[in-house]
Amino acid sequence: MRFISKNKTADRQQTKDIAELKRQIEVSRMAISSAQNQFEYVVDPVLIDCYIYELNAAQLRYQFLLRNLKKRETQETG
Fold first, then answer.
1. How many whole angstroms separate alpha carbon 72 and alpha carbon 66?
2. Which residues have CB under 8 Å from 35's CB, separation 6+?
3. Distance from C-alpha of 3 to C-alpha of 18, rounded to nearest angstrom
4. What pTM value is reported for the model?
5. Does the structure show a pLDDT above 60 at 11?
6. Which residue, 5, 26, 14, is CA-closest to 71?
7. pLDDT digits over 19-62, tens only?
8. 72: nearest Cα among 7, 9, 5, 17
9. 31 Cβ contact partners less than 8 Å away, ≥ 6 residues apart
10. Alpha-carbon distance 8 to 66, whole Å?
11. CA 44 to centroid of chain Cα atoms
12. First to last CA, the chain
């Protein structure tokens, strides 16, 4: 019977977490791009406000994810 050490299991989980953060960052980048593109073509004031809020939310999420990724990567190396 093989036993997996807790360190290897924790390392694998951390690697999965980092991969998921990177995937979420890419999703956020696409959301930012989409909101920017749609904002450029709307003329209705309500939709302009909508895309401003959407863009701000996507940018804040992107920044949050980047900070988390940086923190996780420094924990992995440290």
1. 10
2. 51, 54, 55, 58
3. 25
4. 0.80
5. yes
6. 14
7. 999 999 999 999 999 999 999 999 999 999 999 999 999 999 99
8. 17
9. 54, 58, 61
10. 25
11. 30
12. 32
Q: How far apart are CA 14 and CA 26, in angstroms?
A: 18
Which tokens hold the place of 72? Answer: 């996780």
Helix axes 45-77, 6-41, angle to 10 degrees: 160
Q: What Rg value do the Cα atoms of the chain yield, rounded? A: 18
Residue type, 2: R
Which tokens sit at 1? 């019977």
Q: Is 14 left (phi over 0), alpha (psi -120 to 50) or beta?
A: alpha
Instruction: State the Cα–Cα distance between residues 35 and 56, nearest whole angstrom.
Output: 9
